Amino acid sequence: MTYRNTAGYLLSVLMVLALPASPTIGAIEQPVIQEVESNQTAFFWRRQSAPDRLEGVWRIQEARTPRGQAYTGSLDITAIGNTDNLYQVSWETSEGNYSGLGFYEEGRLLVGAGLDEGIYGVALYRIQNDGTLDGKWTLSTANGEVGTELATKGRSGELAGSYQIQSTDPGEEDSSFSGELTITESRDIYQVTWNVDDQTYRGIGLRVDDWLVVGWGTSTNLGVLDYEFKGNEATARWARTGSRELGMEKISLEN
Q1: How many Cβ atoms are within 10 Å of 230's Cβ, its own excluded?
Q2: In Å, how far are 9, 73, 169 from 12, measured between CA atoms?
Q3: Which of 12, 47, 57, 132 would you label with 154, given CA atoms 20 to 30 Å apart?
Q4: Are 102 and 122 in contact (CB under 8 A)?
């Protein structure tokens, strides 16, 4: 499904697109470059296996929303798709039930979430020294397939700014489309906007060392989460659209 096809699909469902330093468990390898028919250069990370105990039900031991309200509940993490590091996350909490998609990289699960019934997705970019963003992305209607995105024309040492993107669709390595990406910073939170084929997509992001993770979708109610795992426990910081503060979660794996 392309950004273009996504737009057509979403417009058939919705009339208007909605707004919206870390220890490592395994060192990430250098990206592999693959040439596709369109002469676009697509970047991929080598697969990185997650801990054996990442999948399962995790109990929320302590948590608060970005507004400071405590909540309780649990989340279920399940591997999906054909890649080793893509996961579905489902929360059942006293604040509501939510779903998300996350990539596991360097001891962290980096998640984009939909906080209502809209279509949601996650984009994850590796920030290169020259300002290039080497990305991959998926969405809840992609059936576990992953697309790629290379964002260029950025400035070294500055994440906020405007970029030109060359992308492939989830599960379609021979596809190719281009557009513009704009990133703005507000405290610890990033607002992200894509303009592709006269359509606008928006998301909310967090920087995690040399990564930018973005939750995006059709809703005005999106979330982005950064879980750091240590054995059978993990701690997360998270943001949601409409808030300038961060929430937190501490979770532990149920036996």
Answers
A1: 11
A2: 5, 34, 19
A3: 47
A4: yes
Of the candidates 100, 83, 88, the residue with the CA atom closest to the CA atom of residue 49: 83
pLDDT in tens, the chain (255 residues): 455 555 443 433 333 333 343 333 233 333 443 433 333 444 444 445 555 679 999 999 999 999 999 999 999 999 999 887 999 999 999 999 999 999 999 999 999 999 887 899 999 999 999 999 999 999 999 999 999 999 999 999 999 999 999 999 998 888 999 999 999 999 899 999 999 998 999 999 999 999 999 999 988 899 999 999 999 999 999 999 999 999 999 999 997
Tokens linked to 106: 């360097």
Please state the φ and ψ torsions of residue 154, each to the nearest 5 degrees: -80, 170
